[in-house]
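Annex B.
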Amino acid sequence: MSVKAFKLVSAVEREMLMGDKNYINIECIECCGKNLYIGTNDCFIYHFMLDEKVSTAGKVTFAATKQLHKYLGLKKPVSELKAASALTRLLVLCDNTITLVNMINLEPVPTGARIKGAVTFTLNENPVSGDPFCVEVCIISVKRRTIQMFMVFEDRVQIVKEVFTPEQPCAVAVDGYYLCLALTTQYIILNYNTGESQDLFPYCSDEKRPIVKRIGRQEFLLAGPGGLGMFATVDGISQRAPVHWSENVIGAALCFPYVVALDDEFITVHSMLDQQQKQTLPFKEGHILQDFEGKVIVATNKGVYILVPLPLEKQIQDLLAGHRVEEALVLAKGARRNIPKEKFQV
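TGFA1 protein: predicted structure tokens.
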């Protein structure tokens, strides 16, 4: 049985991005407040402002206004973008180098500060330094079996730690001192401060794309064997039952109380409260699914879409109207912190 939890709404049409240039593909996206950044295969960054409009009937639409675009001067794709809004900086990974650019005008910082030798990178959303004018960046290094931690300031970068891993890492998420790593044959938790590590479960990165995602304090979501979405804490235990995905999940995101997953043909929505699949949305050629401050964005090579959640009260009323009282109660109790008190009482 399905619940209408999300609606798929177009945000950036292909014409806005590429006009009639068919060879341009979207490689990565970043969203920070109303700022949407897109990195392309021909080494450009595009900056759009996203305005959300809600009609009197409650229909949500997005209007994207292009601010500017910037060529990075290489013949390589822009592979990752991350915003550090406290520093008004955008971290841009292109050709194994992370460059710092201004979030507003997309100009590189005058000092030329950069991190070289990065395969992929992520930010620590639960930083340990306590410095508000610094972001902690974890990179998988081009050096074999090496992870590096950096502190990135407005106009300089500083290496903090280099950690060696038992096998080649291919994906990483960070929480405090804890790294959740997808290695060649397994997932592990590694404390980069103490060096202690803990095996989670086996996984073959040659057969499938690993997914490692921080979903909350000291908790991660991983693509496990047999098409399972597995939850793991930094202690190596799971406090929630897994969700059943398809075998070939490309990306996953969290929008409480739902886990959203993308595969070759569909976007699927599972409840974290009862692990049931609640909604399936046909979506072909998707290759990016990410959540940004609670906003879930999906993209194909040519366009960007936003998954707009329906109000929880409306979902609960729909379940009651369909005589699915148990599910409505589970959702109401589980999502209590997300519902205004007076509406919860009703």
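Helices lie at 14-18, 312-321, 325-334, 341-345. The first strand starts at residue 6 and ends at 12. Further annotation is deferred to the next reporting cycle.
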